[in-house]
Design brief:
- About 35% of the residues lie in helices and about 15% in strands.
- By secondary structure, the protein is of the alpha/beta class.
- Among the domains are: about 140 residues, no CATH class; about 200 residues, Rossmann fold, CATH 3.40.50.
- The strands form four sheets. A six-stranded mixed sheet has the order 8-9-10-11-18-19, with helices on both faces. Strands 14-13-12-15-16-17 form a six-stranded parallel sheet, sandwiched between helices.
- Helix 17 links the parallel strand 15 and strand 16.
- It is elongated and about 90 Å long.
- The protein starts with 16 loop residues before the first helix and ends with a helix.
Length: about 550
Amino acid sequence: MMAVPFLRSPPFAGVAPATAAVSAPAEEGACAPSISDEVLGLLAEARVGGDYWGHRQQGLVLVVRAGVPVDGSAMAGLVPEQIGIVGASTSGIEGRQLPDGCDPWALVVQARAVHAAPEDELALIAGLLAVPVIDADGRRVDPALLRAGLKARLAAARYRDCFTGAPVDVTQVIAQLADWRRHLDGNRGISAASGMAFWKREAIGHFLWDGLRKPPFLSAPRGLRRARREGGALAVWPSRVPPGTAAEAAAAGVGIAQVEDGFLRSRGLGAALHPPGSVVVDRTGIYYDARKANDLETLLATHNFPPALVGRAARLRARVCAAGVTKYGPQAGEMIGLPAGRRTILAVGQVEDDLSVRFGGAGVSGNLDFLTRVRRAEPDAWIVYRPHPDVQAGHRKGHLPDATVLAHADAIDTGAPLMQLVQTVDEVHVLSSLTGFEALMRGCAVAVHGMPFYAGWGLTRDFAEVTGRRGRQLSVDQLVAAALILYPRYIDPVTRLPCGPEVMVDRMANGSTPPVTWLIRLRMLQGKLRRFMTLFAEFLHG
């Protein structure tokens, strides 16, 4: 019988194993590929292979495969809790019986020795991590033999891209599993989730699965109690939990993980009940709150951005721009006419009560204040104002009457393809809008009146005072690497598997996104009714 491939997929909840599979035993007689030492180096760095998503037991000194005898001298000075037994124990060794499905990397890295057969996955991993392996005869196994055994195990499988079904080589599978490991590791220790809208919960469950479980959806008080009891963290959607939740968590010694939409979201508006295709899970703050540090800001300020990552970001940026996708997906419409021979400015409006405006607006009080500042900064320019789509759809606060807008701007646009407009004007002015980031990705000049995550790194014209935590000079591709690769999580709308941003861009470009549900249709109707009432009230009041 052929061995189970060493590189294999986690048992993602709700996803068929055949869909998630990245490997299968090679067909008998198939030509085995050559596995290099460089591949083993990638494997050791990524720490994937075996049940790498499993339980993580701490405090071990010896790791023993059940049934492998251990000389008494090897256990001298140890208490049973320091001896981890993997599998059903029949040897009579006193030790800690470990649960099924442990992460072998977590077990081996803390051990001073592993007692197992040379072909055992525990032994193969120990050989990579330079941890001694002792066989059933009490002899140390030659590390070269273990490396050769691992190469043979890797060569005995065929590999596939789980998103396309196409054959791939072993290095691509290692990279995919490494991305999954980063995703799952980021969810470890989340005890409960609060403030998640019911129509988002199926997607949020996929985003927050940690390899063993999804956190339960509880009210904030119940979630805090559970997190405190387990010594874990509470995941929250910030705008949907009571204002005092963070303070209560701090008083109880409970960590908070703030969850928000990512920057490549999905087709459609969140306010219109389109589930997110991407989220961020931030353990120290949240990207739009410039008042304190957050995980994205820390990445931008401290990450070393190796060349391979920056190269990946450059290719991703080119892919995003070529596909023409934005946070809201591909857009269509007629381009607005711009005057020739005159400096042109695009001023991008926002949802006035959005937390990104409240916490990243640097004192700008709303769309009218923002537009006034844009005119003050550009007194002779031709300014076109673009209202936020959630406001335009009637879902959110921030509507300005046309007469008010035209007292400061020269035109109002609601239908032009946004990225085409961004690339046509001389400069884009934003408060804290993601449009500024998307404009930077396309090589456009951006002026910022608030303090969004992409300001303060030498890439924008900043009107607000830059926080002292920023100031490092970054390239656009370093910004993209942090904001689109390292910080968010993505779920493929087709397979429902965690994916990289490249897969999400391809899905958004070809329209492979979840269908419009009856909830979305109802929300669209509600928005149209609200907008009609707003415009009717304007008419009545002149």
